[in-house]
Design brief:
This protein has about 160 residues and is mainly alpha-helical. It has helices spanning about 10, 60-90, 95-105, 115, 120-155, and strands at about 50-55, 160-165. It contains five helices and two strands; from the N terminus they run αβααααβ. Residues about 25-40 have low confidence and may be disordered.
């Protein structure tokens, strides 16, 4: 692991001395010398500052926490969506039609169809699928963070260019 000086980020910004807000009011204090003539380092209007950063490590514990929180939100959305969908389908009579069709096609001994289409059964299945989703999503994103750290050690990580426009 390499140590970076505290002003490494500031040195990566390619700013001209007059670009910072309030630099004219301060009389130029705290700005870098232009190294050339007057006005030679100014950018055209609309051109912003840029910084190149490298994402070389991701903390797996942070990824686990964030992934768990996100998957819990997805879990709640799944439960609400299933409940709303079940009530809509029940109000338009889809489950009654399916039960009548099952009674017509069988010798009415398949009365368990109504039990399978009940709200309680739908929510039980949604809870089971949602819990499995929370566990798998959290585990897989944590594994992904660990694999990213291994790959980033070999190739150096992802380089990102941030710009201020």
């Amino acid at each position: 692991m390499t140590a970076t000086p505290p002003d490494a980020l500031a040195r990566q910004f390619d700013t001209a001395p007059g670009d910072r807000p309030g630099s004219a009011a301060r009389g130029g204090e705290g700005t870098r010398p232009s190294g050339g003539g007057s006005g030679g380092g100014s950018r055209p209007p609309g051109a912003g500052r840029r910084a190149k950063l490298r994402l070389s490590k991701v903390n797996p514990i942070t990824v686990t926490r964030l992934s768990f929180a996100f998957s819990l939100c997805v879990f709640v959305v799944l439960l609400v969506a299933v409940a709303v969908l079940w009530f809509v389908l029940n109000s338009i009579g889809v489950f009654d039609s399916v039960t009548d069709a099952a009674d017509t096609l069988t010798d009415s001994s398949a009365g368990d169809v109504r039990g399978w289409l009940s709200f309680g059964r739908a929510m039980e299945i949604s809870l089971l699928i949602g819990a499995i989703n929370v566990i798998l999503m959290t585990a897989l994103t944590t594994l992904g963070a660990l694999l990213y750290n291994l790959c980033a050690e070999m190739i150096g990580g992802i380089e990102v260019t941030l710009s201020d426009q």
